[in-house]
Amino acid sequence: MNNSKIIAAISKDRRYRQIALPFEIGKTEQQVKDAEFLIRKDGTIFNVEGWYHPAGYVVGEVLYAPDEKGDKYIFGQRYRKVTLYPGTYKPIPYPDRAKVLREIDPQFDQTEINPFFAKYKQILPVTDFVAYLPSSRALKRALAQSNGHTKFYVDFVNLINLLGLRIDEISLGLTGAPLLGNTGRYHDLDVVFSGNLNKNLQIAKTMRDLAINEPWRRLFEGGKAWQIRFFNDLKTLICTFFTYSKHSDAPLRDFSMEILEKGVVAQGGVSDDTHSMYTPTILQLKDVTIMKNHRLIQRYANLPIIVYHTASRGDCFNNDIVQASGALVEIKQADKGIYPAICVIDREGLRNISPPWEGYYRE
Hints:
Blueprint: H1 4-11, H2 14-19, E1 21-22, H3 28-31, E2 37-40, E3 45-48, E4 57-66, E5 72-74, E6 77-81, H4 97-104, E7 122-125, E8 129-133, H5 135-146, H6 151-162, E9 171-174, H7 176-179, E10 189-194, H8 197-213, E11 218-221, E12 224-231, E13 237-242, E14 256-275, E15 281-292, E16 295-307, E17 321-333, E18 337-344, E19 350-352
Parallel strand pairs: 10-13, 16-18
Antiparallel strand pairs: 1-8, 2-3, 2-8, 3-4, 4-6, 4-7, 5-6, 9-10, 11-12, 12-13, 14-15, 14-17, 15-16, 17-18, 17-19
């Protein structure tokens, strides 16, 4: 698994030295954050997902892999993005990624051994990693090098102004290609917002309003429209991510999950959208029906939906009617006890059936 040659090569890259920090096993809570990247000993770049990580392990997905024929240049080396079809921005369906991952490292295919919520993810030992890339550090570097004139600077300032923010009122960072030092030429600008619960929700709803009121800003990708990914005034695609400023704000920091019934479809109205734009996406529903094989099997006055992927962030807000396909599960948490929920792991598993505009979904 070790590839000292590529680690030595990327360590010489100026951007890497300006962004990356050594990964220290004793500091995992500070260094393992949703939407940030870790560098594995073989040069693989790993995207951290969510806020629950078993002791000694990290949950996420392999995002980039070294490849002599790859079309991405990262820290001076050739890579390929393993979550997209080569040469496109079209995502590979979650079930089809196992084959791609096996070709890189057989232990990356964990579809048969992981817990249900992480079926399509990888759970890797913290000892696999040599470096981490903090999103805030990447932003500070980019701003310091912009001199107020670069495309990145203009795009970033326009975004902040669109949202009515001041740069100093909320913790901000970069992810995606900009987190890897690519702030010169990028397909989209990936920005991380890390405010308190109220501030993050306010920002997400401002983005939603922009997309609703100005249709030209809307993005359609992966079979659906987006409310927290949109085009700024310069027609640059902005992709946003939200993280918790305090770990204690994340509802699923520590939990266990038991499957009660697979293959169910839940429908209800959103009654609490506080965690609607994070990973995992969590929606509190009211007046919920549970169907299986077109037959009603259960009703709940209130029930949470847990969407354990990144593709439905910001799709649903209060008063929306949603449909969720997944498993009825039982969640156990030390601070919240035992409660039922619906867990969604498929990309198309959550659907807003009262979308904010016509044509939100396309087959």
